[in-house]
Amino acid sequence: MKKVIIPIIGLLFSTAIFAQSKSFLDVPYLETSAQVDTLVTPDKIYLNITIQEKDSKGRNSVEEQENKMAQRLKALGVDLDKQLVIKDLSSNFQKYFLRGKEVLKSKQYSLLVYSGKQAGEVLMALEQLDIANAFLEKTEYSKMDELELELKTRAVKKAKQKATALTKPLGQKVGLALHIADNSQPYYPRYNQAPMMEMKTVSADMGQAQPLDIDFEKIKVETTVNVKFALSN
């Protein structure tokens, strides 16, 4: 009995799939695609900072430079607990580099800042502390998920506008969406964009150097969708 039931269930399941596919093909439809994009300014900027004894005059220790850097960053409004992390974990145990008869210590950090202005202030402070080894690690946009959803909504609306424009001269109406395909590429943070950032030094009175106003390259975000709309007279 079981051997008879199983083939019958399989036949009914196949028939249901065929009927569904057939009914879909029988419905007149129009397929349109739409792409929307926008540019956003990164608001999460990661700076890679390395402190080395050889980078400072008078061979100040890494610990001395670290304390001075922490004081300057606090003065700039940086929350050290949330924005500064040690990148090289081995530096917790004081990593040593042997150069002939010299023993040089090094410590690496990742610093998060939220604007080009704050990045410029940090770079100037590091320069004044003779800490020269700092570069842009990566940039991000904090509200990327919300932005991508907004762009998808705009793309679907644009696809429907296209469908309406194509069918209106024919006296047909655009109905429900039969199928929606999201062909967007996922967003990934931008790494090592230092060559792409533009630095502008602003002088107040021709001699007084001001912090760099760093204009980072904007992030382009785009979304593409394909939509099949049912048509009716």
Automatic annotation (TrEMBL):
Residues 1-19 form the signal peptide. Keywords: Signal. The lineage of its organism: Bacteria, Pseudomonadati, Bacteroidota, Flavobacteriia, Flavobacteriales. It comes from Flagellimonas olearia. This is DUF541 domain-containing protein.
